[in-house]
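User: Hey, quick favor. My workstation is busy. Could you predict this chain's structure for me?
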Amino acid sequence: MLAKEHVRDFSMPRLARALSVGVMSLYTYFPSKDALLLALADDVYNRMAPIDPQERWQDYLYSWLWTVVRHLDRHPEAIKLMQWSGHVSPGWLQRWFPVAQALKKEGLRGPELAFAMSWFTTAAMGFISAQLRSPENRRTASLAHLENLDLESQRLATGLWLDFADIHRDDVLSFGFRQLISGVEQLLTHPIRSTGATAAP
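Assistant: No problem, here it is.
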């Protein structure tokens, strides 16, 4: 169910109907929706492949990123079980903490570690989430309203989408992961402590 719908739409009665069981039978094992989601998150993230130790932190992060992608390929519902209702699931945190530990070993501490983890996590997961959807977005069928563009824009879009068909998702991911690791290298060399003083242009 979670692979096809948002967590906010998930409910014990709906799950009971899908399983053809009485809803009270679910409450025998899980006292609340949150308890059930926590158990699901633990189960899904316990299936995530272990990552072998690496001599270089860069290699570890690269392996971690690919492990996350492969896990989401097999369990698309996992991305919805990272957090819900404003709370992060312990199952996901246990898979996320090793990244923080790796950066801590490289010397980041306190607010500077927090900044690096915030940037890396949001950049990585946003990028991965977009790429998981990218094959569908690159289909020529997504240009259903092409006629609303001027002729020059129509030609540009048509040419791009024809070439998009030849793009392999994993090539884009590999390039993006190298950029993410390069960004972390910059944060290790020049740590940032967020002060709110940086003005947007």
